[in-house]
Design brief:
single chain, 286 residues, alpha/beta, TIM Barrel, eight-stranded parallel beta barrel, 12 helices, 42% helix, binds 3-methyl-2-oxobutanoic acid
C-alpha cells in the first residue's frame, strides 16, 4: 500500500528556510488544480482570493465573499494530502473588527478545511492578525501590493518604490511578525526592499513580484500555466500554454466528430448479439 504523504506544518516551512532551502507556494482554485499542485511537491497551496478573477470571472478580488472562498476551500482541501493549506480571508472578512477576523479564520479552518489563514495588510491589521493567532490559528501576512485595497493604493502598481514607502513596508512587516504571523507574502515591491525585509525578519518571506532574495516564491497556477489571459503582471512567468493546448483539443474534437473519427469502437459500449436480436423482436412494428 502506498505510504500516506506527511502533511507539512508551519514548522516544516521554517525548518526549510533555516536549512537555506526555498519555500514554494502556488495558488490553486479547485480539486483538480489543487491535486496537480500537491502532487508536484509544492509546500503550500494558497486558496487565494485571486480565484475571484481566475475561476469566477470577477474583474478583481474585491467582490469575493467568504462563502465563495469556503466553497473553493472545501474542494481544494479534499485534494491536498501533503501541502500546507493557506486560506485567504477576502475583503470584508476581517476589516471591521478583531472579532470578525477570528470568526472568519475559524470558518476558513472549520468549514473550508484550511490549515492556516492569510490576510492582507500591515500595521493597521496587526491587531486582527494577533487575535487570530491567539485564537490558535496560524496567520500568513501579505503586504506590498494588496489587491483587496487596490482603490486605496491607486491601482495594481508596484509598492515601496521611494524611501519613505520602503521604510513603511519594513514597519508593516515587523508589525506582522510581532503580531505572531508565521510567514509573510511580499507582493510587487522592489527586489532590494524585499531583500532588506527578508534580512530583518525571522519568519519566512514569500515573494510574488518581489525579486529573488525572498525565502520562497508564490505564483498563481492559472497565470503560470497560461490558463488566465485577461492580464499578466510583469512578475508572472508562463511555464506552459494550457489555453492553446485546450483550444487545440476542442478544435480537434469538433473536427473528428464532424468527420466520423470520434467516437471509435474503443469509445463505445457493446451489446450481445442475442440481446440485440431480442430487442429488435420486441420493438413495436413501424
Ligand atoms: O490570491 C492570491 O493568489 C494571492 C497571491 C497573489 C499571493 O494572494
Amino acid at each position: 500500500m502506498a505510504e500516506a504523504a506527511k502533511k507539512l506544518t508551519i514548522f516544516d516551512l521554517q525548518a526549510k528556510v533555516d536549512r537555506g532551502e526555498k519555500v514554494f507556494q502556488v495558488t490553486a482554485v479547485d480539486f483538480p488544480t489543487a491535486q496537480l499542485v500537491d502532487r508536484a511537491g509544492i509546500d503550500c497551496i494558497l486558496i487565494g482570493d485571486s480565484l475571484g478573477m481566475t475561476a469566477l470571472g470577477y474583474p478583481s478580488t474585491v467582490p469575493v465573499t467568504m462563502d465563495e472562498m469556503i466553497h473553493h476551500a472545501k474542494a481544494i482541501s479534499r485534494a491536498a494530502r501533503r501541502a500546507l493549506l493557506v486560506g485567504d480571508l477576502p475583503l470584508g472578512a476581517y476589516h471591521a473588527s478583531v472579532a470578525d477576523a477570528v470568526n472568519s479564520a475559524m470558518r476558513m479552518v472549520k468549514e473550508g478545511g484550511a490549515d492556516v489563514v492569510k490576510l492582507e495588510g500591515g500595521e493597521d491589521f496587526a491587531p486582527m492578525a494577533q487575535a487570530v493567532v491567539r485564537a490558535g490559528i496560524p496567520v500568513m501576512a501579505h503586504i506590498g501590493l494588496t489587491p483587496q485595497l487596490m482603490s486605496k493604493l491607486g491601482g495594481f502598481r508596484v509598492q515601496g518604490r521611494d524611501a519613505a514607502a520602503g521604510v513603511q513596508l519594513l514597519a508593516d512587516a515587523l508589525a506582522m511578525e510581532q503580531a505572531g504571523c508565521f510567514a509573510i507574502v511580499l507582493e510587487a515591491i522592489p527586489d532590494r526592499v524585499a531583500q532588506l525585509i527578508t534580512e530583518r525578519l525571522r519568519i519566512p518571506t514569500i515573494g510574488i513580484g518581489a525579486g529573488p532574495h525572498c525565502d520562497g516564491q508564490n505564483l498563481v497556477l492559472h497565470d503560470m500555466v497560461g490558463l488566465f489571459d485577461r492580464f499578466a503582471p510583469k512578475f508572472v512567468k508562463k511555464y506552459a500554454d494550457c489555453r492553446s493546448l485546450i483550444g487545440k483539443a476542442l478544435a480537434e474534437f469538433q473536427d473528428e466528430v464532424r468527420n466520423g473519427r470520434f467516437p471509435l469502437p474503443e469509445h463505445s459500449f457493446t451489446m450481445k448479439e442475442d440481446e440485440y436480436q431480442a430487442l429488435l423482436r420486441q420493438l413495436p412494428r413501424t
